[in-house]
Specification:
Helix content: 40-55%
Oligomer: single chain
Number of strands: 8
Strand order of the largest sheet: 1-2-4-3-5-6-7-8
Strand content: 15-25%
Order of helices and strands: HEEEHHEHEHEHHHHEHHEHH
Length: 320
């Protein structure tokens, strides 16, 4: 009888208490998303591309336009790049294009192959009134999109300044993403359980919060968009297309006439054997390729924004 009682309590918790808690969490999450959408509207413009809204943030008046492209899973690209773009906007026009499923952009049901992603980015810039050629600032996974852009539309890409960017070869050495974990994280985000993260873990999990550029209001906006756009279905789907996208880029000719400067993270070199070689070997094939290794994490533009801005401006100055 005692065992039956314990089993009964177990099933009561599993089939009654836990579902009830999830329903309460989801209801609370949905309510807060609506409130946050009103309190924290998009910082830039929402343009329509293939029936979906893509968020494009624009700043500065100089030339050329610097286009910032986020790495995989970056929930708020506009604020994520802020430590760097705020320094570059002093001399250049900057544009942060948030892919579908990112930031204030809509989610989608479209495939996440590199052709689709690139054309969405180009159309979003066109809808925003921006005219190339551009200097691309890709972080991580977006290195593939930037290289492919230079391959397919060389007249639109003046240079690529990579922030620990992926190259086709680097995809062979990155550890495989566990799809089960990714789907579990997506479920946690959609149900609103991420809102219950202890305050002590926020700075630990979001080092951007330590940036002197971030105001208290910026931090509130960042977290609101994180709750909205963390591990979306587009981000999950992108993982399925990564290897194929890398093959597409590898099968095209190296854009040897597109100047490139890569900033490479010490942490990524330590955690991914062969990372530095994958990036620097690619630069050896470029007519004008440079790199700088920095003591920083993979989100290299957080702690090293000053030196990246300084070196990027010097690099672009030599091209004119």
């Amino acid at each position: 009888m005692k065992i039956i009682k314990i089993v009964g309590i177990f099933f009561l918790i599993v089939f009654t208490v836990i579902p009830l808690l999830l329903i309460v969490s989801y209801t609370n999450h949905t309510k807060k998303l609506k409130q946050e959408a009103i309190r924290y509207p998009p910082l830039g413009d929402l343009v329509i591309v293939n029936g979906k809204k893509i968020h494009v943030y624009l700043e500065g008046e100089g030339e050329p336009t610097l286009v910032f492209l986020a790495g995989h899973g970056t929930s708020n690209p506009t604020l994520d790049f802020q430590p760097l773009w705020v320094r570059m906007a002093e001399d250049y026009r900057i544009a942060v294009v948030e892919r579908l499923g990112y930031g204030w952009s809509d989610t989608s049901n479209s495939p996440r192959d590199i052709n689709t992603i690139l054309e969405e980015t180009r159309k979003a810039l066109d809808q925003s009134g921006e005219i190339g050629p551009y200097v691309l600032f890709p972080h991580s996974m977006s290195g593939l999109e930037a290289i492919y852009w230079a391959q397919k539309y060389p007249d639109e890409v003046e240079a690529i300044i990579g922030l620990d960017p992926c190259t086709p070869e680097s995809m062979d050495i990155l550890p495989e993403t566990q799809k089960f974990i990714l789907h579990a994280m997506s479920f946690i985000s959609r149900i609103g359980l991420s809102r219950y993260m202890p305050d002590s873990d926020v700075e630990k999990n979001f080092p951007l919060m330590r940036s002197e550029i971030m105001t208290e209001d910026d931090k509130q906006k960042f977290m609101a968009v994180f709750y909205r756009s963390s591990i979306t279905k587009d981000m999950v789907k992108e993982v399925d297309f990564l290897k194929g996208n890398a093959r597409t880029v590898a099968e095209n000719e190296v854009p040897i006439n597109t100047p490139m400067y890569f900033f490479i993270s010490d942490d990524q070199i330590a955690n991914v054997p062969g990372w530095k070689e994958a990036l620097t070997d690619y630069l050896l094939m470029i007519n004008h390729g440079e790199y700088l290794q920095l003591d920083a994490g993979h989100y290299i533009h957080y702690d090293q924004a000053d030196i990246i801005a300084e070196k990027a401006k010097a690099f672009l100055g030599k091209l004119n």
